[in-house]
Amino acid sequence: xxxxxxxxxxxxxxxxxxxxxxxxxxxxxxxxxxxxxxxxxxxxxxxxxxxxxxxxxxxxxxxxxxxxxxxxxxxxxxxxxxxxxxxxxxxxxxxxxxxxxxxxxxxxxxxxxxxxxxxxxxxxxxxxxxxxxxxxxxxxxxxxxxxxxxxxxxxxxxxxxxxxxxxxxxxxxxxxxxxxxxxxxxxxxxxxxxxxxxxxxxxxxxxxxxxx
Length: 212
Fold this sequence. Notes:
Layout: H1 2-14, H2 25-45, H3 54-73, H4 83-91, H5 96-103, H6 107-124, H7 142-146, H8 162-165, H9 169-190, H10 194-205
Helix pairs in contact: 1-4, 2-3, 3-6, 3-9, 6-9, 9-10
């Protein structure tokens, strides 16, 4: 069944099949925004950062970016249709390397996206047993800790459990900012109308109005 599911999803990106479809990236962004609103309220009521909502919102934001790439490269926004990129998206483990190569993504944004997708993986594929570090943060994700993005006691000899560290409103805001920057690059390439591009990008920036 799993192989059939992957084959079918890949086929939808590479074959011309009958039926209707529409933009779904905005559905994902809207859901992420609603979760961010709740996250702001939750963090405000607790310690200014602790929130369970990033566990749901961060994977949704990653899905929004993938959906946007599919829509843009299918020609939905009027420019830059690329069947070759659609084929790559259909077969790749994830979209990060494809996005980075096609759009000449700045190195800093590449690094932010790579960390964000690892956070997504940690949430969607939990391995929430001890990481072997005194503070509980997996060694390969120490840049998040060093940047102050995790829910943390800031003590190196003990801290919250790893999944509790991910329950951070700051991390959620960082994820939104990273996806917003990525969406801006894609929309700049594919929208034929500057006005439409600006209005489209507003949906990715709306989170700022409800942030702490």
